[in-house]
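Hi all, long-time lurker, first post. I run a small reading group and we've been trying to get comfortable going from sequence to structure in the token notation. Rather than ask abstract questions, I figured I'd post a concrete chain and ask someone more experienced to write out its structure so we can walk through it together at our next meeting. Sequence below, copied exactly:
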Amino acid sequence: MVNPIEALNKIFDSRIRLGVMSILIVNNSVSFNELKQMLELTDGNLASHLNTLEQADYLKVQKAFIGKKTNTTYFITDLGKQAFKAHLDALEKMIKGI
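-- Answer (accepted) --
Happy to help. Here is the structure in token form:
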């Protein structure tokens, strides 16, 4: 028998990272503040999860200034799209197999 959780991506074990990827897969880009508001997180908590996703090359970051304020925007990468879709497929197969 095949292990039903073997194909799941460990990076997406976190509900926060799952939420970030879910938002980014349907939006071209999302700012840090928008993500923070949508997921109801603190700056530090969100930043650490975004860093994990960035280190895995699942998202890219663009920093810019709007007036004197910094604006950080996140985009999902092609690798991120592939990894997230594979994770969702594995979840679906696991659920259907139970």
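A couple of things your group might point at:
Strands lie at 30-31, 59-66, 69-76.
DSSP finds four helices and three strands in the chain.
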